[in-house]
Write a structure and sequence with these properties.
Layout: H1 2-33, H2 35-43, H3 47-58, H4 69-138
Length: about 170
Amino acid sequence: MKKRIILDETFEQLKDLTNSTAKQAVKAINQAFNPLNYLLSQEKPSHSSVDHDKEKKNIQPTNHTPLNLEKLTANYQEQKRAQMKVIREELFRIVKGWEHQSLERKRSQEKEEERKRTLEEQKKQKIEEEKKKSSQQDIPQGKIRRSIFNPKKIAQRQHQEVRASFGKQ
């Protein structure tokens, strides 16, 4: 019977141990991950945390140097100025390129218009010359020499002029 009592006691002890371990684990997790407790502990610093902060201030860190925010902001502003300068120069080049292209287009259009005008003037001059030549050929220039081989050849006569809407009214 002695063995049974020992076994009963060990099982009871094991049961008590698992129950208490489970409860303690839940409490520990709740304390670690509960944001409400974390915020409350941040807002109300305890006396021990104040002492701890004083100790931290007295200890000089050896791993880093304190940041100089004024130097950092000045350095960032210099970098931004350099970037802005590069961007401005690029935009200036783009705009000047556009201006150059527009001027070239205007010049080419003017040259094209001038070329068209000269072609039109040349065509008009050719038409006028052809009219003059044709009008000179239509008007008889005096006696036409008759050919020996064709004695019946006569000078061409001008035909009577016909006007539209002339006549019955």
